[in-house]
Amino acid sequence: MLSNITDTIEKFVVTFPAGMGDVNSYLIKGKNGYTVIDTGINHREAIENWQKFLDSGAVIEKVVLTHTHEDHLGLARWFQETHGIPIVVSKLGYEQMEIRKQLTYEKMNHLITKYGGPKIPKNFKDDKTIYDFVPDEFFEKNQMIQLGDELFEAIWTPGHAYDHFCFYNKEQKVMIVGDHILKDISPVIGLWNGEEQNPLVEYFQSLELIKEYQSDIALPGHGDVIEEFEERVSEISRNHQHRLEQVVDIIKTDYKNASEICHEIYGTLNVIIQLSSFMATVTRLLYLESLGKVERKEVDGVNTFRALSST
């Protein structure tokens, strides 16, 4: 069930038939048992995977979360309530949990349709019960926290999620990057709390920050291990710039909404991927607007955008 990454870190891929289909959980060895980084989604298949692991005699000391999106936090409450395992979350993460508990289907739909997107299917709802618990411990940015028997620095990297943290061990030059950096795809930067914000500017700042940490190996929340870390960070930044240029080019002459722009870039997609791509398009438009490169006009209650001539 485990694959070895280093002498003290193993990877456990938690699979489930939803979202991206799996999450990388990292198990860091310690004298009191494993520290688990992220849990997977609240789904029967994921629970069965973890239960088999625990039934094998493995001991888990605690669970630490990189961020509180449902595929990383989803089984934290189950670990705590069913097995008495402590859950460790950032203070920002706990604030986000409280926000997500209050997020309504109507609020999210209003945000999406305001940018021309399709309504979320009624059966496509967050399971808010996963946020309904109090973590056992909290950490803050730049705090040194113990994972296994080693100390890691908690680095705040907002963008993909406002409460996203990476964990860095300077001696081993190991970085646990969650969804901040992925090897083969760019993390989606969206408005998952239903509020109009500018997370892409935060993401670019976080990319620059993370490059300051020399890492021989980076452990992402999905996909394969990243060995050329600085190069991959730069590549993701270039990919975002390319998409921004695409957006500007599409709206050089006409006002278009985010759904129309998204379709021109990505084509026809299934509903889950379509929502992620749509969200990425919205945040690019808001970022470009903050730079003065596009302007918006409301048409029949829908925000449309056109590139300014100076661009």
From TrEMBL:
The keyword Hydrolase applies. The keyword Hydrolase applies. Residues 22-222 form the Metallo-beta-lactamase domain. Pfam families: Lactamase_B. Keywords: Hydrolase. One of its GO terms (molecular function) is hydrolase activity. This is MBL fold metallo-hydrolase.
